[in-house]
Amino acid sequence: MDIIEKYIYAVTRRLPAEQRDDIEKELRGLIEDMLSDRQGSSEPSAEDLDAVLIALGNPALLADQYRSRKKYLIGPVIFDTYLLVLKIVLAVSVFGVTLAEAIKYTLVTPSSITNIITGYIDTIFSVAMMVFAWITLLFVLIDHFGIDIKADVAHKKWTPADLPEIPLKETIIKPFESIFGIVVAILALIIFNSAEHLIGIYYIDGEGLRQITPLFNTNIFPTVLPLINIILFITISRELVKLAVGRWTKKLALANLVSNALIFTLMAIFITTNSLWNPGFFAFLLESGFIPEGIEMLCIWNSIIYGFLFLLALIFIIDSISSLIKGFKYNAI
Hints:
The protein has helices spanning 2-12, 17-39, 46-56, 59-66, 76-107, 113-144, 175-194, 221-245, 250-271, 279-288, 297-329, and strands spanning 200-205, 208-214. The chain is mainly alpha-helical and 333 residues long. A hairpin with a 2-residue loop joins strand 1 (200-205) and strand 2 (208-214).
């Protein structure tokens, strides 16, 4: 009867939380009635189970029939993925715009509060409409051309063999972890590509918040920016895959290992690049007394860099080992 549990799980996981318990009971009763009609009081065979589940059909399509609201612009096979991606990107975009506007008006005094409010609303509306339009268009095209983005529900001819295993508790990837990683990566993309000069030392005086000197050498930074973008795109892609799969598997664990190694290598190249750091940043630290006289600033900074790399390597090693154990110990595909 394990295949029945997998089928019920495949249906109910696509439904709103408030519907799942009732639909599970209803669906379980329906399957039992259909098996009883085929076999009576005798024990159902594997062939009977397959026949009943095939008659019920693809779990994604059956879940769509149970939903209280129907969605037809984008088909039920990929609608949940579309909705999740749209929510994440909209939330991150709004947060990114809010952060950027806050920094801008902190450093540059606006002409009036009305300009702040109208400018912010206009920017939020424009970004939200653009994000909604492009993501919706993308998924409409994916649905129209039948591009396979979810292997477990995209088959034209569905059979019970297509049902995924119910994930063990130990292998489940919490959605919050992936969403948090995506949010941080997108914010970092915004900052490094449009406001890297704002990263530095600040002070507060009678006129408000003021920047003293940036951390990066603005002449060198553009040459290493592609490294940062590659790192962030790898991070976003990995977290999206983790969010879609929802559990650790052997393949995902190995992909996580490779991505960690690649990210660490690119990060090491980035922070050890000659002349990346602004000399004025170190001069301010010495002049302000943060660093005692007579101590070689370059030696201290190199120690900080290699200490950071050691800590980053340790984090990646622990993360990789943890994912490999979860993916291989529980024999996930």
